[in-house]
Amino acid sequence: MDLARWLDARFIPFVEWHARHALRGRATVKLNASRSPSPRAGAAFAFVDIPTTGAYQGFLFGGEGDAGLLDDTWIFSESGWQPLRARPRTLGPGPSARTGAAMACLPASRCLMFGGKAAGGALSSETWLGNETAWSQTAFAQHPSERWGHAMGADPAHGKVYLFGGADAGGTPLNDTWEWTLNQGWKKLSLRLSPPARYGHSMAYDSVRGRLVITGGTGQSSDLVFGDTWELDVDTMTWRARDPEGFFGPRAGHVSFFDEPHNRLIAFGGLTYHDDGKLVASLGDTLAFTGAEKTTDVRLQFDLGVPCSGDAECVSGSCVDGVCCNSTCSGQCGACNLPGREGTCSPVKGPVVGSRPACSGSDECAQCNGLSLASCGVADGLGCGLQGCIGGKFYSAGSCSNRTCSAGSISCAPFNCASSGCLSSCQSSADCFSADYFCASSHACSKYAKIVAASIDPTQPQAFLPATLSVTSDPTFNSGTP
Fold first, then answer.
1. Largest CB tally within 10 Å, which of 55, 116, 190, 422?
2. Is residue 332 within 8 Å of residue 351, measured between CB atoms?
3. Each residue of 404-418: pLDDT tens digit?
């Protein structure tokens, strides 16, 4: 079954269930069954709190019915379903027909809708704002890429909407997180940890703790359906896994919302896989995610090497150098974030890592030796220094002694140097120390003469080249003729 048919026939029962609990705890609500949206799947839907009346409204747009994609908007309230009245032609058209878009609503009945799959399978990157009277399209220089199957949730306390995941035109799942505000538009968040890429998941805002909660979804492969639960702390902008083992159960295309009076997240329905590998609409259950009290919130503890911000986040109890570490790794020359060794306290070679006390002395023999975690200093007798020909000087390897390197260098002038030492003869000027030297016929490097003063014999006629030219040479130059 195509994930575009997410909500299946379970959509209307979900709305009725939400109404019975959201509309101030009444046991039953009589719905206006004579007027309701036509059967559809993949519609964008969100509830919004109306502060002035204390009531709730639900907004629904589009989806896919038996006759194809839909572009109608419906509003659900205590009195039942009502279609959004037709837009005046002077305001231009509303959103085009689509399925797989996502919607989230802020107070004052302002709803944000993004993306979706239009006719012919074309994906959208449009952003629309709607209320109970009309839709208007907004344009921002920065916005999420075209996608469908993503999820959105609203943080009404801060006037923000968040978007996570979805699938691109090639069907590749995404795992980027975006934030939207009315004045600034879209902003992509750079987060150190994100849930695995997915689409067909659900998102709801936990107003008690200020967390956006996503559940389930489909991953990269056709048989990968997630059963995990992740939370985005909107204060610290940090994703955390709350149910990595998937007690929630693998499902995609389900719906969820936060039941504030009872302090719990409610999820309903969805699709899952049977053993034969087929995606089927087999779930009609209702799940409640509880234990959301701030005082009893237990954060998942991460394994070694996972990025962290505090000791409490790690199974080991040690968050060191930004990752969960197997120890406190307090030694001056230890680190837990060395490439390929993340999560294991390992000795450093060279300068210390992080906020540990710096080694005293700049000599390499005074730095961390890559062997000891405890302190700086290379053991006496170990090799140090450069070796080979560099810039006309030959460097010989030395050894460390009392945190000092005994390596030395000698100048090979007037000759150049080779890998094994200084040359003693030349075959060309390239074998000489610098451009001031040339290779003479005797295979010796000689310095060019440098004229520093000259005078002309005044007794000679000036109309021709003087017969006598007195030259004073720089005594630091060797004599010779190229």
1. 116
2. no
3. 776 667 788 888 887
CB 299 within 8 Å of CB 312: yes
Tell me which residue of 75, 78, 89, 17 sits closest to 43, measured CA to CA.
75
> Which residue is it, tokens 């037709």?
86
End residue of a domain, out of 296, 313, 343: 296
d(CA 249, CA 197): 17
Could you tell me if 207 and 256 lie in one domain? yes
> Is there a single domain that holds both residue 15 and residue 125?
yes
Q: 318 and 185 in one domain? A: no
pLDDT by residue (tens digit) across 176-185? 999 999 889 9
Q: Are residues 290 and 316 in the same domain?
A: no
Is the pLDDT reported for residue 304 higher than 80?
A: yes
Which pLDDT score is estimated for 459? 65
CA–CA gap between residue 318 and residue 303 (Å, rounded): 10
Mapped onto helix, strand or coil, the DSSP state of residue 4 is: helix
Of all helices (H) and strands (E), which one includes residue 334?
strand 334-335
Q: Are residues 469 and 442 in the same domain?
A: no
pLDDT 10s digits, 237-276? 888 877 655 556 788 888 887 777 777 777 777 777 655 5
The burial class, CB within 10 Å (0-12 / 13-18 / 19+), for 224 is middle
User: How much is the pLDDT for 454?
Assistant: 57
Q: Are residues 181 and 74 in the same domain?
A: yes
CA 253 – CA 255 distance, rounded (Å): 7
Answer yes or no: do 313 and 268 share one domain.
no
The answer to whether residues 418 and 320 belong to one domain is no
Could you read off the pLDDT of 78-131 as tens digits, one per residue? 778 888 764 444 445 789 999 999 999 987 658 999 999 999 999 999 999 988
Report residue 230 CA to chain centroid gap: 16
Rounded to two decimals, the pTM is 0.58
Tokens of 34: 């004579």
Q: Are 346 and 334 in contact (CB under 8 A)?
A: yes
CA distances from 357 to 309, 360, 364, 409 (A): 21, 9, 16, 32
